[in-house]
Amino acid sequence: MTRFAFTVEYDGRPFMGWQRQAHGPSVQQAIETAIHAVTGETAVVHAAGRTDAGVHGIAMRAHADVEKPIAPFRLMEALNARLRPDPVAILDCAVVPDDWHARFSCVGRSYVYRIVNRRAPLTFEQGLAWRVIQPLDTQAMHDAAQLLVGLHDFTTFRSAHCQSASPVKTLDRLDVAREGDRIAIHAAARSFLHHQVRSMVGCLAMVGMGRWTAQDLRAALEAKDRAALGLNAPPDGLYFLRAAYADADTATRT
Amino acid sequence: MTRFAFTVEYDGRPFMGWQRQAHGPSVQQAIETAIHAVTGETAVVHAAGRTDAGVHGIAMRAHADVEKPIAPFRLMEALNARLRPDPVAILDCAVVPDDWHARFSCVGRSYVYRIVNRRAPLTFEQGLAWRVIQPLDTQAMHDAAQLLVGLHDFTTFRSAHCQSASPVKTLDRLDVAREGDRIAIHAAARSFLHHQVRSMVGCLAMVGMGRWTAQDLRAALEAKDRAALGLNAPPDGLYFLRAAYADADTATRT
């Protein structure tokens, strides 16, 4: 048995999310089906983050165990050939120790959320960004975002379906940057609650629209109550960006 | 009668190109149909550039004459509502003088061509960039590109269907820049021949792969013969970026 670590890029639009579902296609299922086609084996693919329906992956990390002797490069090429026409691509494939786990060994996760701030509907970015019509004050958003950085009880920013043992998390980074009508929000933490990034982005958008002050955001955080949430941003603009591991070399080798 | 100038963004994937065609959908037809739905009028939409099938627009400029009295902002909003679900968006709409012409008044055009330089298939960029598997030496591409800048007979880089009176054009800019596995090639000129950007990009890719030297590119240019072309890049990565007009204020006002 060999454990392979993958770096995966995917377009979340046609999927019900990362995780295998009874009622529709998932990224996990697409990769597991490809592994079966290549090896004849029924492998289970574990990921650093289980993204929701419509959320995308730029460099998701995942792993699976394979019995068949095969070189990482050949496995990657074979999987990419079998994944077509699904919009899922294996960018990197490496052999990792048997105790390396894409989810449990992961010590840092980062997301980017993309907003297009304009009136006109999206064209080639339809489903790949959140269009916000109201002009957003990104400096106010960035400043308010810093209130969320650090150790907090993020109950307000947590989905009712969140399975995390605790709502207390340390947010390492929440940056808002604008380039023309494109806004990118970068978030990094050891781990996130379900819907946390989208909920934080939604509330920052409230600040950017001038409907909330930074103080309103602070009050929402301190309420520790989902009902205090201003807005949950749609999945369209959310991308799982990167996963970090303590042993850097196992995470990057092909 | 009022002449309106539009700035148009579009995803070229579902279209046979900008220009109205008997055998399939076009961006021009989509906008003309929307104008008819809004005004009841049969307007003709003229564009700064008539992009090919699969080529995209970031800020194409166009114009049309409308009899119905309507404010630019209202016309833009109504057109965008009618254009759905086609991936075409009016980003800007302004009243211009009756002799302003999106094509004939245009004094400068720029394109960007996007390459993703990696082995893995594309996911959310499928149809929006050219994937090149071979590692490309972008510095060699940029250096070679400078041989094409200036006044030249671009017959080698011209489609057999090109309707331009002369193959002699002045290329103002051809820059190649890399950011990670993303390569952007910017091209600017008063006007381009049919397929010129894609033909130049294809030959620069030959240089980047090491299959051509800069001297081979110069020889291809000097051959003034379509048969000397190394490679025509696919439409997927090509975006009409911007059109320039002598009277700057007519081109930017909403």
TrEMBL record, chains A, B:
EC number from the UniProt entry: 5.4.99.12
GO molecular function: tRNA pseudouridine(38-40) synthase activity
Sites where the protein binds substrate: Y111
Pfam families given in the database record: PseudoU_synth_1
Gene3D superfamilies attached to this UniProt entry: Pseudouridine synthase I, catalytic domain, C-terminal subdomain (3.30.70.660), Pseudouridine synthase I, catalytic domain, N-terminal subdomain (3.30.70.580)
Domain Pseudouridine synthase I TruA alpha/beta: 8-104, 144-245
Domain of life of the organism encoding this protein: Bacteria
Keyword annotations from UniProtKB, A to Z: Isomerase, tRNA processing
Coiled-coil intervals, chain numbering: none
Residues forming the catalytic site: D52 (nucleophile)
Reactions accelerated catalytically: uridine(38/39/40) in tRNA = pseudouridine(38/39/40) in tRNA
Description of how the protein assembles with itself and partners: Homodimer.
Protein task: Formation of pseudouridine at positions 38, 39 and 40 in the anticodon stem and loop of transfer RNAs.
Entry similarity comment: Belongs to the tRNA pseudouridine synthase TruA family.
Protein name: tRNA pseudouridine synthase A
Organism of this sequence: Sphingobium olei
Upper taxonomic lineage: Bacteria, Pseudomonadati, Pseudomonadota, Alphaproteobacteria, Sphingomonadales
Gene: truA
